[in-house]
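Hi U.,

Before I forget, here's the chain from the pilot set. I'm dumping it here mostly so it's searchable later in email.
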Amino acid sequence: MKSANRLRQPGLLVAALALVTVTACSVTVEASLDEPADSPKSSKSEKRADGDAPSAPKKPQAAATPKVFGTAFQTGPDRDWSKGQPQPFEGVLRGWITSVAQDGTAEYKPVRFTQSDGNDGHFEGPEEGDVTRFAAPIAANVKFLSAFGCDGNDTTYDKNTNLGTASCPRQFLIDSANEAAKLAAAGDTGVRPALITTVNGKIVRVVDIYWQGGGG
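Structure:
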């Protein structure tokens, strides 16, 4: 009875309630610290973190390859072609290299195939007076697949695609382009068509298109 009377006293009653509250909190904290890592609560937290993580960057898509015997010129960004230094054509251009400077910068133009009677036809560049052209340095490790061998006297091409197959040095590509430029300056109207791939402002791949007229 004395104990019950003592608890009825205001000071002792408050102290007892405080002791009970502290004890309950202590038990809760210890239970929280002992909670296993793979508990449902922990899993939910990890899932939210994963959901908020940034997605991996997308890989750049490969450049689309034009039709080998396409009948329309490919075009670059709209600009005044009569002013300033020509810009690279990013991607794969069906074109021909018209000249290569001493520093290895090539100028190149788009070409198209013009079909005549039957299976005959020819490749042609823009009309005279059309200043559409592109320029880019030829990469040191450029991949050049020639349709005429690495001496210019063979025929090395895939008959199914009409694309060159002989892997030749960079210098042979430059020499061939400059030789074609000399012939053009002397009045030769023929072009040497190729698929020219430019990546990040550099020509990294050139594949000759083989065509002698008369259907093949």
